[in-house]
Each structure stands twice: as C-alpha cells, then as structure tokens.
Amino acid sequence: MGIVIPLEESKNKHASVKPLVELTKADMERVNQLILSKAGSDVQMIPEVANHLISSGGKRLRPMLTLASAAMFGYTGDHHIKLATSVEFMHTATLLHDDVVDESNLRRGKSTARTIWGNQASVLVGDFLLGQAFRMMVEVGSLDALDVLSTAASVIAEGEVLQLSVAKNMETTEDDYLSVIRAKTAALFAAAAEVGPIVAKTTKAERNALKSYGMNLGLAFQLVDDVLDYGGKAADLGKNVGDDFREGKITLPVILSYRRGSADERLFWKNAIENGESSDENLEKALGLITKYNGLSDTITRAVHYGTIARDALAPLPETPWKSALMEVIDFCIERVN
Questions:
Q1: With the C-alpha atoms ordered 305, 187, 83, 62, is the resulting torsion angle positive or negative?
Q2: Of 14, 145, 147, 175, which is most buried by a Cβ count within 10 Å?
Q3: Bridge-partner residues for 107, per DSSP?
Q4: Residue 102 CB-half CA count within 13 A
Q5: Percent of the chain's residues with pLDDT above 70
C-alpha cells in the first residue's frame, strides 16, 4: 500500500542530491579508496562482512556532508578525507549493530550481514570498523574533531539503549521518540557536518551553523524514513513496507495515531506493537488508523519544520555552490515521500 502526500511547503519540486554528489565526486573517490583500504584485514571474515554492507549501494550522504562542509570554507588539505571515512565507518558499524538488535533480515534490499555470517560476526566487525574510525581521527590530529566524533559515538550508543527502553511501549511520548532519533540518527549527521569547518579552521559561529544544519537535517531524514515504512514502496525502501510495524517499532506515525485514537483503537495498537500481533491484516488496519489520524502527513509536517531550521542555520553563510547543494539536500531528504 503506497500513500503519496503532496508537499506544498517545498520550494523545489525536483530536489536532488546530484549537485552535492558532483561537487564531492573527486573527494568521494578518495574516500571510497580509503574505505576499501581501511576495511582490509588479514582476518578474512572482516573484509567480507564489511564490504558486504559498504558495497550495498547507500548514498554515503554523511561523508559527503563532511567533504562539503570543509570545502565550502576553502579547505584544501586531506584531513577531511580521513574524517569523512571515519564518519562512514561509524555509520556502517551502527547499521551492523542495529540489524542485530532489531533482528533485521534485509538492508537496502540485500540480506543483512547477520543472516549470512551470524550476529557475533556482525557485532565484532562493527567494533573493528569503529576502531579503524578512531585510528583515522587520531591521525588527523585535531582534538576538536576527535571530541566531536567520539562524543557522537557515545550519544549514538545512548540512543540505542534509550530505544531499547522505549521499545514496544505504547506510552512512549513524541518527546521521548525525538530524544531517540536525535541521538541515534541526527547526532551523526550533526558531527559529520561540524568536523568539516573544524579542519577548515572557521569561526565558532560557522561551525555551529553546520552543526545545527546537520542535526536538523538528520531529524527530518529520520522522520521521513518513518513515513516511508508505512507509505513507501519496497523497491525504494530496500526492505519490506511495514517492517517497523512487524518489528514492533515505536515511530512517530504510530505515536500520533495511538494518542489520537479511541480506547478500542489504542487497545489495537497495544496488541499489535506490545504483544506482537502484527499480521498482514493488522498492518492494513494500522495503515487505516494512521491515515484516519493524519499520522503520515503530520509526521511530514514535523520533518518540514526541522528542514526549515536546517535551512535557516545555513542562511547567514555566503552564497556558494556548496551552500546551494546543502540546501537542496534538505528538500531531497523530505521529498523522498513523493
């Protein structure tokens, strides 16, 4: 079941990540080479597991944010290459760990590493990638960059634990949920965008602008992902529509629909999410309730709100192709629901 929601607030009807891809193309080639190099190991299973996920076709948006946010301030060294690679390794490690925690079988349309090599290998290879990420951060020699990325790593882990504490709990509030995604998703977006200006030795205000941009872009990105799970297509998602529902995940469309529903409807959500009654029939009923209570459209409204904050964060900076590309990424992330 696909639900298309018009985005009247969007200023750009055909937003694309292509301008950012083109601007960072040469540097991303260097990042990709470094990824392959640093994912190597004499322990055969490590590169097998790492390359399975690394080569699975993600957009690499987070490392591109690092590259762009350094280049937009005129940085010409190579520290941003190592930091962008560190960011991607941190992201890959969290995906490996996430799939174990969530018991997921599909990631970007492919079998997850845990289904091929097992949970233990997935966790340990994720730990290896985190170790490699920190080695590269140290090589860069910037205590500020190391502080930002290491803090993000601990915040992400806190987010994972916080998500466990609210898992399958229908009393989770919107504020609780935003705390989870701020830590789990947005923190790495913020850190990825902030370390660019750090190595470019910009002002504190410019650094904070990119940090705010990344944080709010990350929130918008995750909220749109939540919408896509109930209103997207399997081919676009790289997983099955309704996987969040089947896994009993508490996401914003569910929270809004639960809180706005009748006593009987709230009982349905409790049985479906907390007791695991997630049949295809119940998924259809869940979709109906989410539609009835504007769960998707209101989640998109929240995403647009955070996108606006991200846009305002960049607004005072000089007009450059890099700034324009980062602005367009905001619309691109939100317009995925179309």
A1: negative
A2: 145
A3: 110
A4: 22
A5: 93
